[in-house]
Amino acid sequence: MRTPLIDAALVLTAALLLGACSPAGEEPAAGPETAASMEAAVSERSADMPAEANDTDVHFLGMMVPHHQQAIDMSDVLLDSDVIDPEVRDLAQRIRDGQQRENERMNALADEWRIDEDMELHSHHIANGMVSPGVYETFAQLQGEELRTRFLELMHLHHAEVIRMTQDQVDNGGYQPLRDLANEMIEVQTAEMREMEGLYGGVPGM
């Protein structure tokens, strides 16, 4: 069943794609990236990686950490604003805290595996539902109901688009603890998306 939030996300996706034709200064969001499309850019396998770890694991870490960081930053904007809706603020706090904990786990793995070059390579990509700098700047300047609505729209898209990459890790990753973490992410973010749909427009269960 389509909801107003899903319709808004579809419109937002189209707007981001049309951004490729926007004037200079508005950076368009890139399309989804997969492990296969990045294979040529992955550096030589680190000797510190476990034998079962593969390129999908490395790609997942490199892409997910900055993706999580943007969600953390977006949540901080909402939490530092004048938005008073307690349910939206609670959601933003849970997204912020949960993705910060996951980033700490993923960064610890990246440090252990010594894949700094790969992490740096992927850190500059705008993909899998991430918003462009221009869109983010506009978002960060909003207040009140406009910010509340925009947060739900952007975060819903942010979650929906990255789930595809996360599923690729579940299906094709070699390192089981990272596959388990990816599966947890899908479960949590899917539940959060349903919560956003209920909060959109201020009518729970909408």
Automatic annotation (TrEMBL):
**Leader peptide range in chain numbering:** 1-20
Q: Which PROSITE patterns match?
A: PROKAR_LIPOPROTEIN (PS51257)
User: Is Lipoprotein given among the entry's keywords?
Assistant: no
Q: Which domain of life is it from?
A: Bacteria
Alphabetically list the UniProt keywords.
Signal
Q: Does the keyword Signal apply?
A: yes
| Domain DUF305 residues, every copy | 57-199
- PANTHER family per record: SLL0788 PROTEIN (PTHR36933:SF1)
Protein name per the record: DUF305 domain-containing protein
